[in-house]
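Input chain follows. Return structure tokens only.
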Amino acid sequence: PFAVIIGCSDSRVPNEIIFDQGLGDLFIIRTAGQVSTYASWGSIEFAVSALGARLIVVLGHTQCGAVTAACKVPDVPGHIVTLINAIRPASIRASQVPGDLVENAVKVNVAMQVTQLRNLEPVLADKVRSGEIQIAGAVYDLASGEVKFLDEEFITEWGT
């Protein structure tokens, strides 16, 4: 695979179709709200180090249920709370942006995850610094089918 896509589990986001790629072209990691943790990080590092992927895309999407829950639902059952707790900082930051809270939180969540991965020591951070890999953020619009990549200024401003 030439790229890693860290995307949401939502079945309305079919990565190979969105990016017009065949089997084996993309290394896909999917969790609700595209939340990454240790197992995800190890999988990403494996795709980069062992399989040679050179691009990592954190792909959020409009109308994300996990982000909506982080913005609007005070309590969730069971282990779902781990997803919500990972997304909630983005929802808090997004409340400072004019416009739709959920759609802004989707973008901020992506930006924060891009920054987290770029700083993930030792493997990813080293490869970002050396220019061996790029890590980008994007949002898939469920209504239009369009993928919009976040500009670097947005990631820098909202990704911390």
